[in-house]
Structures are given as C-alpha cells and as structure tokens.
Amino acid sequence: MKRTIFSILIVFVLIFTSAAVSAKGKGKAKGSGSGKGVKSAQKDKGRRAEKGESEKKQRKEKSKQQEEQKQEKEEKEEKSKKAKGREKGEEEKAEKREKETARGRDHKQQLKALEEQMTREEQKHQKRLEGLSEMRTKAEADGDTKRVEQIDRRIERGNSRYEQKHQRMEEKKQKILKLIEESKAKAAGRDKEKDDEDEDKDEKEDKTESKKNKK
C-alpha cells in the first residue's frame, strides 16, 4: 500500500516537473519571438526615417536647382533686354550719325557748288569789263566823250552789282563753312561718346567675368 502511494506521488512529481519545464520553454520561446519583432520594427522605422531624410534632401536640392535655374533665366532675360536696349540705342545713334554725315556731305557739296558759282561770276564780270574797256578805248579814240561817260557809268554799275553779289555769296560761304565745322565737332563728340561707352561696357564685362571666376 505504501509502495503504491509512493509510486503515485512520484508520478505526480514527474508530471508537475514536466509541466513546469514545458511552460518555461514556451515562455522563453514567446519572449524570444517578441524581441525579434521589436528589433524588426525598429529596423523598419530606421529605414523609413533614412528614406524620409533622403527624400527631404532630394526635394531640397531640386528646389535649390529650380531656384538657381529661375534666377539664371531672369538674369539672361535681363541681359537680353539690356542688350536689345543698347542695340536700339546704337541703331538710333548710328542713324543720327548717318544723317549728320549726310548733312555734312550736303554742306560740302553746297560749298563746292557755291565756289564754282563764284568762279563763274568772277569770270563773267571780268569778261564784261574787258568788253566795256575795249568799247571805252574806241570811243575815246573817236573823241566821243558822251559815249565814254556812258561806258564809265556802265562799268561803275557793273562793279557795284558784282561786289554786292560777291558779298552775298561770301556770306553764304562763311555760313556753310560754319555748319561744316559744327558737323565735324558733333561727329568728334559722338565718336568720343561712343569710345567712352565702349570702355564702360568693357569694364562692366571684365568685372562680371572676374566675379564669375571668383565663384
């Protein structure tokens, strides 16, 4: 009887021990699985954070590039506008210079024509005086004093008329010469102004190029 009871107790102890060991093993397995899950979640979270940071960096760089491209485009447009403005201004100045040059040529042509006219008038007057002088000599030889007096009056009127005409042409000549000198002075001033503008333009380009090289 005692032996039977002892056997039953041993069986109970074995069953209890086995149950305890089994429970402990399950607990360990459960704890191990839970730890792996936490680590996996942490890794996923880290990867997501890295991905988000990378995307944020990419967006920032893209925004920076877009801003630089926009600024570059605006600078090009501004330069283009300035260039067009300079071209227009230069065209207007060139047109003005051409007109001034044309006027200068006109003045020179006028001067040449006037000088030729003055030469013709002088030759015409001299020829007329020679004719009257011959007529006077003949009248004087004939003793025709009345005829001589008439010829003298004609010579006097001819000289007076020629002197007045010559004076008007000389005044006109001086005006044309003055206009030619003014045209030359204006042309010289425009050339100097253009040289100054070219120098300023070169200096600005040099400064711009220097800034680019420093960057």
Describe this structure in words.
This protein has 215 residues and is mostly helical. The chain has a domain of 107 residues. The chain is built from two helices and no strands. Helix 1 runs antiparallel to helix 2. About 2% of the residues have low confidence.
Chain-wise SSE layout:
Elements: H1 2-141, H2 145-214
Helix pairs in contact: 1-2
Features of the shown structure:
215 residues; mainly alpha; 2 helices
Structural class: mainly alpha
Average pLDDT over all residues? 76
Tell me the helix content.
Answer: over 70%
- Alpha carbon gyration radius: 58 Å
Order of helices and strands: HH
Distance between the termini: 105 Å
In percent, how much strand structure appears in the residues?
under 5%
Low-confidence stretches: 29-33
So how many helices?
2
Largest sheet: none
Task: Categorize the overall geometry.
Answer: rod-shaped
Number of strands: 0
Outline:
Helix content is 98%, strand content 0%.
